[in-house]
Amino acid sequence: MTGPIVAASNVTKSYPGGRKEPDVSVLKGVSLEVAAGEMVSIVGPSGSGKSTLLYCLSGLEKPTAGNVHLAGEDVTRMGRSAVAAVRRKHVGFVFQSYNLIPSLNARENVALPARLARTPISREEADNALAQVGLDDRGSHKPSELSGGQQQRVAIARVLAARPAIVFADEPTGALDTTSGAEVLRLLRAVTTDARSVVMVTHDLEAAALADRVLVLRDGLIHSELRTPTPEAVLEAMARARENA
Prior knowledge:
four-stranded antiparallel β-sheet, 25% strand, six-stranded mixed β-sheet, Rossmann fold, 8 helices, alpha/beta
């Protein structure tokens, strides 16, 4: 497709407050674009709205106001079933909690999104995706028989098999040790190709610096943007965001 794979315009998101309490405003007018083949990291102090922004961009949550175009489709104007169809066709997810089905083995977990999208893949294709993440000998293992790092690699293999245009990753290394986390990040960087983009929320500044661009959120707004970032530059930007919070 031509144009950005994700485009958000003046996105706001509020949640109802408690009894007699005002609504809680999380996003306060965020506008951004993600180009095809680009990896973008989103960082910011706790409570800045990082995960909420990710969920709005990916169609998992509807903004209170503003528009989100995902793969050229205005998902803010769609009903739930139509948005779900867009996600199945164009979007892959990698979460901190892996989101694997316990009763399915690794191969079956990899094949599941394609089956749900009614474009089933072969056993060979699922095994090839597992081989790309170094798990060619773990296809018959269930999640309980895999380490955390291996489970996250299955989640990435699931993305590779589904061939989405955009991958959203929410703290993908948050539950992993340093070695496993580094391997997962290497794979996510490799997932980014001319035909696929990655948007990642992370608290890990070195992880963030792997991206082509880093967005620093503060109080529900984009505070700064870094291109060709370094860990040191991300650290400085985060420090400035905290000082001004």
